[in-house]
Amino acid sequence: MHFVYILFNIETKKFYIGRTNNINKRLKEHRAGVNKSTKFKCYAWRLVCAEIYKSEKDAAIREKKLKAHGSGLVELKKRIKYSILIN
Fold first, then answer.
1. Is 3 in contact with 52 (CB distance < 8 Å)?
2. Do 5 and 18 contact (CB within 8 A), yes or no?
3. Can you give the pTM of this predicted structure?
4. Inter-CA distances, 56 with 19, 28, 32, 50, Å
5. For labelling alongside 48, which of 22, 27, 55, 85 has CA 20 to 30 A away?
């Protein structure tokens, strides 16, 4: 399985979009400050959304669309608006 996931930083109010085939390992890496993009205030990142794909190519396409097209992320933020309010 391949995952496209959205992290939200409860302190900086920033989002991070990523893709992996091992979501648990990847979340641990983010929280440990291993990832350069999420190293700052790594303890404050929360998983707010994950999509599962059988195909790695489908996951890569979805991640690219979320990162490249602001409208895709805007729509996703509307769907998860109550999730990002949680500490």
1. yes
2. yes
3. 0.84
4. 9, 21, 25, 14
5. 55
pLDDT, tens only, 2-11: 999 999 888 8
Look at residue 52 in the predicted model and tell me its pLDDT: 96
Q: Name the residue with tokens 């990847």.
A: 26
- What does the chain come to in residues? 87
HSE (side-chain half, CA atoms, 13 Å) at 80 = 20
Q: How far apart are CA 59 and CA 49, in angstroms?
A: 14
Summarised one tens digit per residue, pLDDT across range 39-71 is 777 778 889 889 999 999 999 999 998 888 777
Which tokens sit at 46?
A: 């929360």
Q: Which two structure tokens, joined as six digits, stand for 63?
A: 């991640």
The strand pairing partners of 18, in sequence order, are: 5
Q: What angle do CA 76, 56, 3 make, to 5 degrees?
A: 45
Read off the amino acid at residue 57.
K
